[in-house]
Amino acid sequence: MQQKKQGKWFRYARPYLPYFIIGPLCMIAEVIGEVLMPKCLSLVINRAEELEKAGDAASADQSGVLFSLGVAGVMVLIALAMMAGGIGGAYFGAKASVNFAADLRSDVYARVQQFSFANIDRFSTGSLVTRLTNDVTQMQNMVNMLLRMALRAPGMLIGALIMAILLRPSLAVVLAVTIPLMVLCIVLLILRTYPMFSNVQGKIDRLNSTVQENVTNVRVVKSFVREEYEKGKFYNANRDLKSTSMRAMRLMIFMSPIMTLFMNITTIAVLWFGGDMVYSGDMPIGDLSAFITYVTQILSSLMMVTMLLMMLARAMASAKRISEVLEEPITLTDDGASRKELTVQEGRIEFRDVSFRYYKNSENAVLDKINLTIQPRTVVGIIGSTGCGKSTLVSMIPRLYDVDEGQVLVDGVDVREYSLFHLREGVGMVLQKNVLFSGSISDNLRWGDEEATDEQLRAAAESAQANQFVEAFPGGYLYDLGQGGKNVSGGQKQRLCIARALLKKPKILILDDSTSAVDTATEARIREAFRNELADSTKIVIAQRITSVMEADQIVVLNEGRITGVGTHEELLKTNREYREIYESQMDRKADEGV
């Protein structure tokens, strides 16, 4: 299992393996330079000390200058190699991490696109946005830092430690005390902060959800004068994120002075014992200078490892959240489709003993033992009280949800035997919540048919009673709708969604309360267009207004997840009490209003 998890991330690195290899190798060149530099400097200092003790000032000056120039030339070459290594490491590290993150983000997004409604119900929108953005960015930063520091920090630690021991083994004993203490502090810090980073990402989810909900529904917020309430919600989410982040940051901030304290104590100890050695003549002053530099490098590399591990801890929390999306079992797939090439031809629909629960352990079914046959090329109305399962029932046809029990058949074939693509290509839906996307009106309409001509767009809009207001917009069909279609009214949005569905020319058209925001006269013209434009299609109309379904060939009455009546308008008035009550209440209301 562990090997499988490692392979999951490695496949994002494999296409860019040269970057992952060259980058760290460049950093090794920089490390070698950093380790050699103090030794070169100590040679110059020791040479000067030796010549000074020799007593011949003239020859000492000349010899010292020549020696120093030679070592300086070597140091310049080392510095240039370090610069090339540093630039190369940064460049290839960035290339590798950015490409890694881009591919990972694409796969997470593609996975979300495969989600069924049941899968999406497990994640909030804000959480998915955070996972696609912030969590992937955390992993990108971790990969970049790992490539730059994974070899550099340990390499400098090992190299400097070896050089320090070679210079003066007895003095290196000081490090045998301080390094284990620093490592212990690092381990305790990582164990403490890892769960905190998981909490931080969860708080970011909540904040993103709050912002998205507020911005998306800003008109509702303003119409109900709820700005102060929404500001309070945002303040609480923001404060919660801040306090959680600060708890994690305090530990990281606290670590820096602790590491610095260890570094200073170690340096003082080296100066104390090393000074005695220099004073007694057991150690050249240049070696002491180099040893102090190596001690600084050793402790600095440990601090780099600490930061790397801290970033790794946060990235691991993000990786776990991303894995939850990538490993979420897709509830609706083509795995059981035995007739993947089959397409919807007639539009005959049959429900056989269909039952469904949103929560599978719930005793109460949303739909309970539904049996219904819808003949092709007919108009079927579905009516019932709010929450009785109307939208859920029609969602079974294109497999937005799968039945728990029973079967849904289209043209005599179980919908699970179709490929999702061919099944949904044959079904057009205008959902209860009308959704448009950023872009022009023509871009949105062409969701129904990518190849549609301008004339076909206009004809569909005319049938949906949308052409008149579209032509009045600046630019007409090129008018930009803004995010979510915020530049049009609810009724206009509904008509554009209907036009989009008409362009698809599906064999089955489902209208889920899709004309609730238009007046009755406009709705009548839209129904007429359906009869003319989609005569060969099966049309299912879900409505709250009884006038929307009165002319249907068949009307289905739903109540608490069960079918209580099926028939024409006249038949149901005579035989179905619930239908008659809906009719009388709505007609009486119209009479009272003088309609």
Set out the fold topology.
Layout lengths: L1 H12 L3 H38 L2 H58 L2 H4 L4 H25 L2 H16 L5 H44 L1 H6 L3 H54 L4 H42 L22 E8 L10 E8 L4 E6 L5 H6 L9 E6 L2 E2 L5 H6 L1 E4 L10 H5 L8 H10 L3 H6 L17 H15 L3 E5 L7 H14 L4 E5 L11 E6 L2 E6 L1 H7 L1 H17 L2
Parallel strand pairs: 3-8, 3-9, 6-7, 7-8
Antiparallel strand pairs: 1-2, 1-4, 4-5, 9-10
Helix pairs in contact: 2-3, 2-6, 2-10, 3-5, 5-7, 5-10, 6-10, 7-9, 7-10, 9-10, 14-16, 18-19
Describe this structure in words.
The protein has 595 residues and is α/β, with parallel strands linked by helices. The strands form two sheets. The chain has a six-stranded mixed beta sheet. Strands 2-1-4-5 form a four-stranded antiparallel beta sheet, with no helix packed on it. β9 and β10 form a beta hairpin. α2 packs antiparallel against α10, α6 runs antiparallel to α10 and α7 packs parallel to α10.
